[in-house]
Amino acid sequence: MDDRVTGAIRESYDRLADEYARRIFDELQHKPFDRQLLDRFAAQVAGRGEVCDMGCGPGHVARHLRDAGASVFGLDLSPQMLAQARRLNPDISFREGNMLALDLPGGMLAGIAAFYAIVNVPRQTLPAVFREMIRVLQPGGLLLLAFHVGNDTLRENELWGRPISMDFFLFEPPAIQGDLEDAGFRIEEVVERGPYAPEVEYQSRRAYIFARKPGSLRSTRTTNDPESKSPRSS
User: Fold this and answer.
1) Sequential DSSP letters for 99-126
2) DSSP assignment letter at 162
3) For residues 137 and 97, what is the distance between their CA atoms, to the nearest angstrom?
4) C-beta of residue 8 within 8 angstroms of C-beta of residue 165
5) Class of residue 199 by CB neighbours under 10 A (exposed 0-12, middle 13-18, buried 19+)
6) SS3 assignment, position 230
7) Which end of the chain has a smaller Cβ tally under 10 Å, C or N?
8) Strand 153-159 and strand 162-169: pairing?
9) What is the pTM of this model?
10) ∠126-156-194 over CA atoms, to 5°?
């Protein structure tokens, strides 16, 4: 995925950012299964270090994880999307970044939540993304990856009345599982569900993978201590 494609994705989300935030920020209120998975993820990483909401958009997943007890920050390619995230979540840190070259130290993170973060990434580029993810995770660090199920590539030139220039990719779970394992992850669970109602989300089947970097997750605890939507939305 070259700089031209990355730039087109960034510019497209910059154009969508305000409308995206308006439509998507409250969506988890209508998705009990997704909230359950995020709560499970938050419980497993709480107190063990920082967590990244990767491809954070307007920060709704980061907001849920923070409320569930995780020490979370958000990362996104789009400066305008990050501006929306900061406006809506002033108590959470957000930073600009590219999943293909994360400006994060190796072994920094206790967990990564990547809800639909790979929707604009072609299959041939995913191994590089997953290698970066496992690099920045602590030994024992946890990844929760969500994506749309299928083999289609959706080519869109307009969304919500805004011009865009990017593709949306659907993936089969066994293929993604294989790419994660090749990157060094250990798969803990693969879960699928059908779509919620059309007014809640884009009508595709969804997959969620819990995957872990091998090793023992170090603890930092002390003794006191689911309107029509873009496929990028969850």
Assistant:
1) TTS--S-TT-EEEEEEESTTTTS-GGGH
2) E
3) 16
4) yes
5) exposed
6) coil
7) N
8) antiparallel
9) 0.91
10) 65
Q: How many CB atoms lie within 10 A of CB 1?
A: 17
**Cβ neighbours, 10 Å, residue 220:** 11
At 191, which helix (H) or strand (E)? Answer: strand 186-193
Classify burial at 234, counting beta carbons within 10 Å of its beta carbon; exposed 0-12, middle 13-18, buried 19 or more. Answer: buried
Amino acid at 70: A
Alpha-carbon distance of 75 to 95, in angstroms, equals: 5
Other C-beta atoms lying within 10 Å of the C-beta of residue 157: 9
Extract the tokens encoding 4: 């031209």
Q: Kindly state the tokens that stand for 111.
A: 């967990």
The C-alpha atoms of residue 101 and residue 73 are separated, in whole angstroms, by 17
Contact 56, 76 (CB under 8 A): yes
